Amino acid sequence: MSPPLLKLGAVLSTMAMISNWMSQTLPSLVGLNTTRITTADSLTQISPKEGWQVYSSAQDPDGRCICTVVAPEQNLCSRDAKSRQLRQLLEKVQNMSQSIEVLNLRTQRDFQYVLKMETQMKGLKAKFRQIEDDRKTLMTKHFQELKEKMDELLPLIPVLEQYKTDAKLITQFKEEIRNLSTVLTGIQEEIGAYDYEELHQRVVNLETRLRDCMKKLTCGKLMKITGPITVKISGTRFGAWMTDPLASEKNNRVWYMDSYTNNKIVREYKSIADFVSGAESRTYNLPFKWAGTNHVVYNGSLYFNKYQSNIIIKYSFDTGRVLAQRSLEYAGFHNVYPYTWGGFSDIDLMADEIGLWAVYATNQNAGNIVISQLNQDTLEVLKSWSTGYPKRSAGESFMICGTLYVTNSHLTGAKVYYSYSTKTSTYEYTDIPFHNQYFHISMLDYNARDRALYAWNNGHQVLFNVTLFHIIKTEDDS
Protein backbone atom coordinates (compact mmCIF):
# COMPACT_ATOMS: atom_id res chain seq x y z
CA MET A 1 0.00 0.00 0.00
CA SER A 2 1.26 3.47 -0.92
CA PRO A 3 1.90 6.21 1.80
CA PRO A 4 -1.33 8.20 1.11
CA LEU A 5 -3.40 5.08 1.57
CA LEU A 6 -1.54 4.27 4.79
CA LYS A 7 -2.31 7.76 6.14
CA LEU A 8 -5.99 7.38 5.29
CA GLY A 9 -6.13 4.03 7.04
CA ALA A 10 -4.51 5.48 10.16
CA VAL A 11 -6.98 8.42 10.33
CA LEU A 12 -10.03 6.22 9.97
CA SER A 13 -8.70 3.80 12.55
CA THR A 14 -8.04 6.66 15.05
CA MET A 15 -11.54 8.10 14.60
CA ALA A 16 -13.08 4.71 15.26
CA MET A 17 -11.04 4.23 18.42
CA ILE A 18 -11.99 7.69 19.80
CA SER A 19 -15.69 7.12 19.11
CA ASN A 20 -15.57 3.75 20.82
CA TRP A 21 -13.76 5.21 23.86
CA MET A 22 -16.25 8.01 24.26
CA SER A 23 -19.23 5.66 24.11
CA GLN A 24 -17.74 3.23 26.65
CA THR A 25 -15.51 5.23 28.96
CA LEU A 26 -17.42 8.52 29.41
CA PRO A 27 -20.44 6.96 31.23
CA SER A 28 -18.17 5.09 33.59
CA LEU A 29 -16.45 8.33 34.57
CA VAL A 30 -19.76 9.70 35.84
CA GLY A 31 -20.98 6.45 37.37
CA LEU A 32 -23.42 5.51 34.64
CA ASN A 33 -22.08 2.14 33.64
CA THR A 34 -25.50 0.75 32.92
CA THR A 35 -26.37 3.42 30.37
CA ARG A 36 -26.86 2.08 26.80
CA ILE A 37 -25.80 4.23 23.84
CA THR A 38 -27.89 4.20 20.72
CA THR A 39 -27.23 5.71 17.35
CA ALA A 40 -26.10 9.31 16.93
CA ASP A 41 -29.67 10.60 16.45
CA SER A 42 -31.33 8.69 19.35
CA LEU A 43 -31.27 9.42 23.12
CA THR A 44 -31.62 6.84 25.89
CA GLN A 45 -33.90 8.18 28.60
CA ILE A 46 -32.62 7.78 32.15
CA SER A 47 -34.63 8.79 35.11
CA PRO A 48 -33.43 12.19 36.48
CA LYS A 49 -33.33 10.64 39.89
CA GLU A 50 -30.94 7.87 38.90
CA GLY A 51 -28.06 10.05 37.65
CA TRP A 52 -26.66 11.86 34.63
CA GLN A 53 -28.17 11.78 31.19
CA VAL A 54 -25.66 11.41 28.28
CA TYR A 55 -26.11 11.63 24.58
CA SER A 56 -23.92 9.35 22.56
CA SER A 57 -21.08 10.84 20.47
CA ALA A 58 -21.89 12.09 17.01
CA GLN A 59 -20.47 14.18 14.18
CA ASP A 60 -21.62 17.63 13.11
CA PRO A 61 -22.01 18.58 9.46
CA ASP A 62 -18.33 19.55 9.38
CA GLY A 63 -17.30 16.12 10.59
CA ARG A 64 -16.39 17.12 14.19
CA CYS A 65 -17.16 14.93 17.23
CA ILE A 66 -19.92 16.21 19.72
CA CYS A 67 -20.80 14.87 23.18
CA THR A 68 -23.82 16.05 25.19
CA VAL A 69 -24.13 15.56 28.97
CA VAL A 70 -27.30 16.31 31.07
CA ALA A 71 -26.88 16.71 34.83
CA PRO A 72 -29.39 15.24 37.29
CA GLU A 73 -32.21 17.38 38.71
CA GLN A 74 -31.26 17.49 42.32
CA ASN A 75 -28.46 19.45 43.95
CA LEU A 76 -27.07 20.70 40.77
CA CYS A 77 -25.01 23.43 42.32
CA SER A 78 -24.08 21.61 45.53
CA ARG A 79 -20.53 20.64 46.22
CA ASP A 80 -21.10 16.95 46.67
CA ALA A 81 -19.16 14.13 45.16
CA LYS A 82 -21.05 14.29 41.91
CA SER A 83 -20.12 17.96 41.48
CA ARG A 84 -16.51 17.06 41.74
CA GLN A 85 -16.98 14.29 39.29
CA LEU A 86 -18.68 16.73 36.95
CA ARG A 87 -15.85 19.19 37.15
CA GLN A 88 -13.34 16.45 36.54
CA LEU A 89 -15.47 15.24 33.69
CA LEU A 90 -15.68 18.75 32.20
CA GLU A 91 -11.93 19.11 32.41
CA LYS A 92 -11.37 15.80 30.74
CA VAL A 93 -13.97 16.64 28.11
CA GLN A 94 -12.27 19.98 27.48
CA ASN A 95 -8.90 18.32 27.18
CA MET A 96 -10.40 15.69 24.94
CA SER A 97 -12.15 18.37 22.87
CA GLN A 98 -8.84 20.09 22.31
CA SER A 99 -7.20 16.81 21.28
CA ILE A 100 -10.13 16.04 19.05
CA GLU A 101 -9.86 19.48 17.48
CA VAL A 102 -6.17 18.93 16.73
CA LEU A 103 -6.97 15.51 15.43
CA ASN A 104 -9.79 16.96 13.37
CA LEU A 105 -7.44 19.47 11.75
CA ARG A 106 -4.99 16.74 10.91
CA THR A 107 -7.82 14.54 9.67
CA GLN A 108 -9.15 17.34 7.43
CA ARG A 109 -5.72 17.96 6.06
CA ASP A 110 -5.06 14.27 5.41
CA PHE A 111 -8.55 13.87 4.01
CA GLN A 112 -7.92 16.64 1.49
CA TYR A 113 -4.63 15.00 0.63
CA VAL A 114 -6.39 11.69 0.19
CA LEU A 115 -9.00 13.30 -2.05
CA LYS A 116 -6.21 14.82 -4.13
CA MET A 117 -4.39 11.49 -4.31
CA GLU A 118 -7.63 9.77 -5.19
CA THR A 119 -8.06 12.13 -8.14
CA GLN A 120 -4.48 11.54 -9.20
CA MET A 121 -4.87 7.77 -8.82
CA LYS A 122 -8.04 7.80 -10.86
CA GLY A 123 -6.17 9.75 -13.56
CA LEU A 124 -3.25 7.33 -13.41
CA LYS A 125 -5.62 4.38 -13.51
CA ALA A 126 -7.27 5.83 -16.61
CA LYS A 127 -3.87 6.40 -18.16
CA PHE A 128 -2.74 2.86 -17.29
CA ARG A 129 -5.96 1.48 -18.75
CA GLN A 130 -5.38 3.52 -21.91
CA ILE A 131 -1.77 2.39 -22.09
CA GLU A 132 -2.84 -1.23 -21.59
CA ASP A 133 -5.47 -0.92 -24.31
CA ASP A 134 -3.02 0.82 -26.61
CA ARG A 135 -0.35 -1.78 -25.84
CA LYS A 136 -2.70 -4.62 -26.68
CA THR A 137 -3.73 -2.86 -29.85
CA LEU A 138 -0.11 -2.16 -30.83
CA MET A 139 1.02 -5.66 -29.95
CA THR A 140 -1.82 -7.17 -31.94
CA LYS A 141 -0.97 -4.93 -34.87
CA HIS A 142 2.77 -5.63 -34.63
CA PHE A 143 2.18 -9.34 -34.17
CA GLN A 144 0.02 -9.42 -37.26
CA GLU A 145 2.66 -7.56 -39.23
CA LEU A 146 5.38 -9.94 -38.03
CA LYS A 147 3.22 -12.94 -38.86
CA GLU A 148 2.63 -11.64 -42.35
CA LYS A 149 6.38 -11.09 -42.82
CA MET A 150 7.13 -14.59 -41.55
CA ASP A 151 4.55 -16.02 -43.95
CA GLU A 152 6.38 -14.21 -46.73
CA LEU A 153 9.80 -15.46 -45.56
CA LEU A 154 8.87 -19.11 -44.95
CA PRO A 155 9.12 -20.09 -48.65
CA LEU A 156 12.63 -18.61 -48.69
CA ILE A 157 14.00 -21.10 -46.14
CA PRO A 158 14.60 -23.93 -48.67
CA VAL A 159 16.09 -21.37 -51.03
CA LEU A 160 18.43 -20.14 -48.29
CA GLU A 161 19.45 -23.72 -47.53
CA GLN A 162 20.32 -24.14 -51.21
CA TYR A 163 22.22 -20.86 -51.14
CA LYS A 164 24.27 -22.19 -48.22
CA THR A 165 25.24 -25.21 -50.33
CA ASP A 166 25.85 -23.09 -53.39
CA ALA A 167 27.94 -20.69 -51.35
CA LYS A 168 30.41 -23.46 -50.60
CA LEU A 169 30.68 -24.32 -54.28
CA ILE A 170 31.06 -20.67 -55.18
CA THR A 171 33.87 -20.38 -52.63
CA GLN A 172 35.61 -23.36 -54.19
CA PHE A 173 35.13 -21.94 -57.67
CA LYS A 174 36.51 -18.60 -56.54
CA GLU A 175 39.57 -20.30 -55.09
CA GLU A 176 40.15 -22.33 -58.24
CA ILE A 177 39.70 -19.28 -60.43
CA ARG A 178 42.08 -17.34 -58.21
CA ASN A 179 44.71 -20.09 -58.51
CA LEU A 180 44.17 -20.37 -62.25
CA SER A 181 44.44 -16.62 -62.64
CA THR A 182 47.76 -16.70 -60.80
CA VAL A 183 49.06 -19.42 -63.09
CA LEU A 184 47.84 -17.63 -66.20
CA THR A 185 49.38 -14.39 -64.99
CA GLY A 186 52.69 -16.16 -64.54
CA ILE A 187 52.43 -17.70 -67.98
CA GLN A 188 51.56 -14.35 -69.47
CA GLU A 189 54.54 -12.73 -67.79
CA GLU A 190 56.76 -15.55 -68.99
CA ILE A 191 55.47 -15.27 -72.54
CA GLY A 192 55.81 -11.51 -72.41
CA ALA A 193 59.49 -11.88 -71.52
CA TYR A 194 60.27 -13.79 -74.73
CA ASP A 195 59.13 -13.62 -78.28
CA TYR A 196 57.75 -16.63 -80.11
CA GLU A 197 60.99 -17.47 -81.91
CA GLU A 198 62.90 -17.61 -78.65
CA LEU A 199 60.27 -19.85 -77.07
CA HIS A 200 60.27 -22.13 -80.11
CA GLN A 201 64.06 -22.38 -80.03
CA ARG A 202 63.98 -23.23 -76.35
CA VAL A 203 61.49 -26.06 -77.05
CA VAL A 204 63.65 -27.39 -79.88
CA ASN A 205 66.75 -27.30 -77.72
CA LEU A 206 64.96 -29.09 -74.91
CA GLU A 207 63.70 -31.77 -77.28
CA THR A 208 67.21 -32.29 -78.61
CA ARG A 209 68.61 -32.63 -75.12
CA LEU A 210 65.91 -35.19 -74.24
CA ARG A 211 66.66 -37.22 -77.32
CA ASP A 212 70.36 -37.17 -76.52
CA CYS A 213 69.53 -38.31 -73.01
CA MET A 214 67.36 -41.15 -74.35
CA LYS A 215 70.23 -42.29 -76.56
CA LYS A 216 72.35 -42.70 -73.46
CA LEU A 217 69.82 -45.11 -71.96
CA THR A 218 71.09 -48.64 -72.16
CA CYS A 219 68.65 -51.51 -72.52
CA GLY A 220 66.65 -51.82 -69.37
CA LYS A 221 65.66 -54.77 -67.25
CA LEU A 222 61.97 -55.51 -66.75
CA MET A 223 60.86 -54.62 -63.23
CA LYS A 224 57.09 -54.25 -63.35
CA ILE A 225 54.01 -54.66 -65.57
CA THR A 226 50.92 -52.52 -64.97
CA GLY A 227 47.51 -52.34 -66.63
CA PRO A 228 45.93 -53.43 -68.74
CA ILE A 229 44.32 -50.62 -70.71
CA THR A 230 41.50 -51.95 -72.87
CA VAL A 231 41.72 -50.31 -76.29
CA LYS A 232 39.01 -52.21 -78.14
CA ILE A 233 36.79 -55.31 -78.09
CA SER A 234 36.64 -57.04 -81.47
CA GLY A 235 37.32 -60.21 -83.41
CA THR A 236 37.46 -63.79 -82.28
CA ARG A 237 39.04 -65.23 -79.19
CA PHE A 238 42.48 -65.37 -80.85
CA GLY A 239 44.32 -62.80 -82.94
CA ALA A 240 47.06 -60.17 -83.14
CA TRP A 241 47.35 -56.40 -83.41
CA MET A 242 50.48 -54.24 -83.55
CA THR A 243 52.27 -51.03 -84.54
CA ASP A 244 55.72 -50.56 -86.10
CA PRO A 245 58.41 -49.82 -83.46
CA LEU A 246 60.65 -48.24 -86.13
CA ALA A 247 57.96 -45.97 -87.59
CA SER A 248 58.36 -42.20 -87.32
CA GLU A 249 56.56 -40.24 -84.63
CA LYS A 250 53.92 -39.11 -87.12
CA ASN A 251 53.31 -42.66 -88.35
CA ASN A 252 50.93 -44.36 -85.92
CA ARG A 253 49.42 -46.98 -88.18
CA VAL A 254 47.83 -50.05 -86.58
CA TRP A 255 47.61 -53.52 -88.16
CA TYR A 256 44.98 -56.05 -87.19
CA MET A 257 45.02 -59.84 -87.92
CA ASP A 258 42.05 -61.82 -86.60
CA SER A 259 42.21 -65.57 -85.84
CA TYR A 260 45.25 -67.88 -85.71
CA THR A 261 44.75 -69.78 -89.00
CA ASN A 262 42.84 -69.99 -92.27
CA ASN A 263 43.07 -66.24 -92.88
CA LYS A 264 45.05 -63.96 -95.17
CA ILE A 265 43.38 -60.53 -94.55
CA VAL A 266 45.34 -57.79 -92.78
CA ARG A 267 43.47 -54.58 -91.89
CA GLU A 268 45.27 -51.27 -91.54
CA TYR A 269 44.23 -48.16 -89.56
CA LYS A 270 45.95 -44.77 -89.69
CA SER A 271 45.89 -44.32 -85.93
CA ILE A 272 44.76 -45.81 -82.65
CA ALA A 273 41.70 -43.53 -82.78
CA ASP A 274 40.73 -44.89 -86.21
CA PHE A 275 41.30 -48.40 -84.94
CA VAL A 276 38.96 -47.82 -82.01
CA SER A 277 36.29 -46.27 -84.26
CA GLY A 278 36.73 -48.99 -86.92
CA ALA A 279 37.76 -46.59 -89.72
CA GLU A 280 39.97 -48.79 -91.93
CA SER A 281 42.43 -47.05 -94.21
CA ARG A 282 43.53 -50.10 -96.20
CA THR A 283 43.14 -53.88 -96.46
CA TYR A 284 45.91 -56.30 -97.51
CA ASN A 285 45.33 -59.79 -98.96
CA LEU A 286 48.43 -61.81 -98.21
CA PRO A 287 49.67 -64.42 -100.68
CA PHE A 288 49.74 -67.09 -97.91
CA LYS A 289 47.69 -67.94 -94.89
CA TRP A 290 49.43 -67.43 -91.58
CA ALA A 291 49.86 -69.81 -88.64
CA GLY A 292 49.44 -68.73 -85.04
CA THR A 293 49.17 -65.15 -83.72
CA ASN A 294 52.86 -64.29 -83.23
CA HIS A 295 53.43 -61.91 -86.13
CA VAL A 296 55.40 -58.66 -86.03
CA VAL A 297 55.54 -55.48 -88.11
CA TYR A 298 59.09 -54.13 -88.30
CA ASN A 299 60.41 -51.23 -90.39
CA GLY A 300 57.39 -51.19 -92.72
CA SER A 301 57.19 -54.95 -93.36
CA LEU A 302 55.12 -57.80 -91.91
CA TYR A 303 56.91 -60.94 -90.70
CA PHE A 304 54.76 -64.06 -90.22
CA ASN A 305 54.88 -67.88 -90.15
CA LYS A 306 53.49 -69.50 -93.28
CA TYR A 307 50.68 -71.93 -92.49
CA GLN A 308 51.68 -75.63 -92.03
CA SER A 309 55.40 -74.89 -92.36
CA ASN A 310 58.41 -73.47 -90.51
CA ILE A 311 58.87 -70.87 -93.28
CA ILE A 312 59.09 -67.20 -92.32
CA ILE A 313 57.64 -64.64 -94.74
CA LYS A 314 58.61 -60.96 -95.08
CA TYR A 315 55.82 -58.96 -96.72
CA SER A 316 56.11 -55.26 -97.70
CA PHE A 317 53.06 -53.08 -97.04
CA ASP A 318 54.36 -50.42 -99.42
CA THR A 319 54.76 -52.70 -102.47
CA GLY A 320 52.26 -55.44 -101.53
CA ARG A 321 54.90 -58.06 -102.36
CA VAL A 322 56.81 -60.77 -100.52
CA LEU A 323 60.37 -59.47 -100.08
CA ALA A 324 61.90 -62.60 -98.51
CA GLN A 325 61.08 -66.06 -97.18
CA ARG A 326 63.25 -68.61 -95.39
CA SER A 327 62.82 -71.92 -93.59
CA LEU A 328 63.73 -71.82 -89.91
CA GLU A 329 65.90 -74.93 -89.65
CA TYR A 330 64.74 -77.65 -87.23
CA ALA A 331 61.94 -75.47 -85.87
CA GLY A 332 58.84 -77.39 -84.88
CA PHE A 333 55.53 -76.25 -86.42
CA HIS A 334 51.80 -77.07 -86.69
CA ASN A 335 51.24 -77.55 -82.94
CA VAL A 336 54.38 -79.61 -82.33
CA TYR A 337 55.85 -77.09 -79.88
CA PRO A 338 53.16 -74.45 -79.36
CA TYR A 339 52.55 -72.30 -76.28
CA THR A 340 50.20 -73.69 -73.61
CA TRP A 341 47.09 -72.45 -75.43
CA GLY A 342 47.96 -74.19 -78.77
CA GLY A 343 46.74 -72.39 -81.90
CA PHE A 344 49.79 -73.25 -84.10
CA SER A 345 51.85 -70.89 -81.97
CA ASP A 346 55.07 -72.87 -82.56
CA ILE A 347 57.10 -69.98 -84.05
CA ASP A 348 56.95 -66.57 -82.35
CA LEU A 349 58.39 -63.60 -84.28
CA MET A 350 59.22 -60.44 -82.28
CA ALA A 351 61.31 -57.27 -82.24
CA ASP A 352 63.00 -55.15 -79.57
CA GLU A 353 65.61 -52.37 -79.27
CA ILE A 354 68.27 -54.67 -80.75
CA GLY A 355 66.50 -56.11 -83.75
CA LEU A 356 64.36 -58.97 -85.12
CA TRP A 357 64.00 -62.29 -83.28
CA ALA A 358 62.44 -65.74 -83.65
CA VAL A 359 61.50 -67.90 -80.63
CA TYR A 360 60.71 -71.58 -81.20
CA ALA A 361 61.63 -75.14 -80.11
CA THR A 362 63.52 -77.95 -81.77
CA ASN A 363 63.90 -81.68 -81.28
CA GLN A 364 67.64 -81.13 -80.98
CA ASN A 365 66.97 -78.95 -77.89
CA ALA A 366 64.48 -81.47 -76.45
CA GLY A 367 61.52 -79.20 -77.10
CA ASN A 368 63.04 -76.37 -75.05
CA ILE A 369 63.00 -72.79 -76.27
CA VAL A 370 65.54 -71.61 -78.83
CA ILE A 371 66.18 -67.88 -79.41
CA SER A 372 67.49 -66.77 -82.82
CA GLN A 373 68.44 -63.28 -83.96
CA LEU A 374 67.44 -62.71 -87.60
CA ASN A 375 68.66 -60.46 -90.35
CA GLN A 376 65.66 -58.29 -91.09
CA ASP A 377 66.32 -58.23 -94.84
CA THR A 378 67.33 -61.85 -95.65
CA LEU A 379 65.80 -63.62 -92.62
CA GLU A 380 69.11 -65.38 -92.10
CA VAL A 381 69.80 -66.60 -88.58
CA LEU A 382 72.62 -64.47 -87.17
CA LYS A 383 73.01 -66.28 -83.84
CA SER A 384 71.04 -68.71 -81.66
CA TRP A 385 70.77 -69.44 -77.94
CA SER A 386 69.37 -72.67 -76.52
CA THR A 387 67.50 -72.40 -73.22
CA GLY A 388 66.34 -75.03 -70.78
CA TYR A 389 62.71 -73.84 -70.62
CA PRO A 390 60.13 -76.17 -72.28
CA LYS A 391 58.26 -74.38 -75.05
CA ARG A 392 55.00 -76.17 -74.35
CA SER A 393 55.08 -74.99 -70.70
CA ALA A 394 55.27 -71.34 -71.66
CA GLY A 395 52.13 -69.19 -71.80
CA GLU A 396 53.68 -66.46 -74.00
CA SER A 397 57.02 -64.68 -74.38
CA PHE A 398 58.48 -61.36 -75.53
CA MET A 399 61.91 -59.74 -75.99
CA ILE A 400 63.12 -56.55 -74.28
CA CYS A 401 66.68 -55.37 -74.89
CA GLY A 402 67.93 -58.80 -75.94
CA THR A 403 66.36 -60.58 -72.95
CA LEU A 404 63.56 -63.10 -73.42
CA TYR A 405 60.80 -62.97 -70.79
CA VAL A 406 58.53 -66.02 -70.52
CA THR A 407 55.16 -66.29 -68.78
CA ASN A 408 54.10 -69.46 -67.01
CA SER A 409 50.53 -69.54 -68.34
CA HIS A 410 48.05 -67.93 -70.71
CA LEU A 411 45.28 -68.08 -68.09
CA THR A 412 44.38 -66.20 -64.90
CA GLY A 413 47.26 -65.91 -62.44
CA ALA A 414 49.90 -65.74 -65.14
CA LYS A 415 53.20 -64.02 -64.37
CA VAL A 416 56.62 -63.55 -65.92
CA TYR A 417 58.33 -66.57 -64.52
CA TYR A 418 61.60 -66.96 -66.47
CA SER A 419 64.08 -64.73 -68.31
CA TYR A 420 67.09 -65.44 -70.50
CA SER A 421 69.72 -62.81 -71.38
CA THR A 422 71.33 -63.24 -74.81
CA LYS A 423 74.04 -60.75 -73.74
CA THR A 424 75.30 -62.96 -70.89
CA SER A 425 73.78 -66.30 -72.01
CA THR A 426 72.33 -66.71 -68.53
CA TYR A 427 68.85 -67.22 -67.18
CA GLU A 428 66.97 -66.54 -63.96
CA TYR A 429 63.57 -67.29 -62.49
CA THR A 430 61.50 -64.20 -61.89
CA ASP A 431 58.21 -63.30 -60.25
CA ILE A 432 56.61 -60.36 -62.10
CA PRO A 433 52.81 -60.61 -61.97
CA PHE A 434 50.40 -58.93 -64.34
CA HIS A 435 46.63 -58.73 -64.53
CA ASN A 436 45.12 -61.19 -67.02
CA GLN A 437 41.81 -59.33 -66.98
CA TYR A 438 39.96 -61.38 -69.61
CA PHE A 439 41.40 -64.80 -68.66
CA HIS A 440 42.98 -65.95 -71.94
CA ILE A 441 46.02 -64.39 -73.63
CA SER A 442 46.87 -65.57 -77.15
CA MET A 443 49.35 -62.82 -78.13
CA LEU A 444 51.83 -60.76 -76.06
CA ASP A 445 54.51 -58.64 -77.78
CA TYR A 446 56.75 -55.75 -76.73
CA ASN A 447 56.93 -52.49 -78.71
CA ALA A 448 60.20 -50.59 -78.10
CA ARG A 449 58.88 -47.26 -79.36
CA ASP A 450 55.83 -47.26 -77.09
CA ARG A 451 57.59 -49.06 -74.22
CA ALA A 452 54.42 -51.16 -73.89
CA LEU A 453 53.15 -54.71 -74.27
CA TYR A 454 50.48 -55.32 -76.93
CA ALA A 455 48.16 -58.19 -76.04
CA TRP A 456 45.14 -60.02 -77.45
CA ASN A 457 43.15 -61.08 -74.40
CA ASN A 458 40.09 -63.19 -75.23
CA GLY A 459 38.79 -60.86 -77.98
CA HIS A 460 40.02 -57.69 -76.22
CA GLN A 461 42.88 -55.63 -77.60
CA VAL A 462 44.77 -54.31 -74.56
CA LEU A 463 48.01 -52.54 -73.61
CA PHE A 464 50.28 -53.13 -70.61
CA ASN A 465 52.77 -50.55 -69.35
CA VAL A 466 56.23 -51.78 -68.43
CA THR A 467 58.73 -50.38 -65.95
CA LEU A 468 62.37 -50.89 -66.87
CA PHE A 469 65.53 -50.39 -64.87
CA HIS A 470 67.99 -48.32 -66.93
CA ILE A 471 71.65 -47.52 -66.65
CA ILE A 472 72.89 -44.21 -68.11
CA LYS A 473 75.89 -44.49 -70.37
CA THR A 474 78.87 -42.28 -69.51
CA GLU A 475 81.47 -40.85 -71.87
CA ASP A 476 83.95 -43.45 -70.61
CA ASP A 477 81.73 -46.40 -71.63
CA SER A 478 82.82 -48.05 -74.89
Descriptors for this entry?
24 strands; 478 residues; 2 domains; alpha+beta; Neuraminidase; single chain; disordered N terminus; 5 helices; rod-shaped
Summary of the model, kept short:
It holds the Pfam family Noelin-1. With 478 residues, the chain is α+β, with helices and mostly antiparallel strands.
Strand coverage percent? 25-35%
- Summed up, the helix count is 5
Q: Tally the beta strands.
A: 24
Structural class, please? alpha+beta
- Order of SSEs: HEEEEHHHEEEEHEEEEEEEEEEEEEEEE
Quickly name the level 1 CATH class of the largest domain: Mainly Beta
Strand order of the largest sheet: 5-24-23-22
Number of domains: 2
Report low-confidence residues grouped into runs of 5 or more: 1-12, 26-50, 73-78
**CATH hierarchy: architecture of the largest domain:** 6 Propeller
In whole angstroms, the N-to-C terminal distance is: 122 Å
| Main β sheet profile | 4 strands, antiparallel
Describe the structure.
InterPro entries: Noelin_dom, Olfac-like_dom, Olfactomedin-like_domain, Quino_amine_DH_bsu. It is found in: Secreted; Synapse. This is NOE3 protein. This protein is an alpha+beta fold. It folds into two domains: 99 residues; 249 residues, Neuraminidase (6 Propeller). Strands 5-24-23-22 form a four-stranded antiparallel sheet. Strands 6-7-8-9 form a four-stranded antiparallel sheet. A four-stranded antiparallel sheet has the order 10-11-12-13, with no helix packed on it. Strand 16 and strand 17 form a beta hairpin. Helix 1 runs antiparallel to helix 2. The chain is rod-shaped.
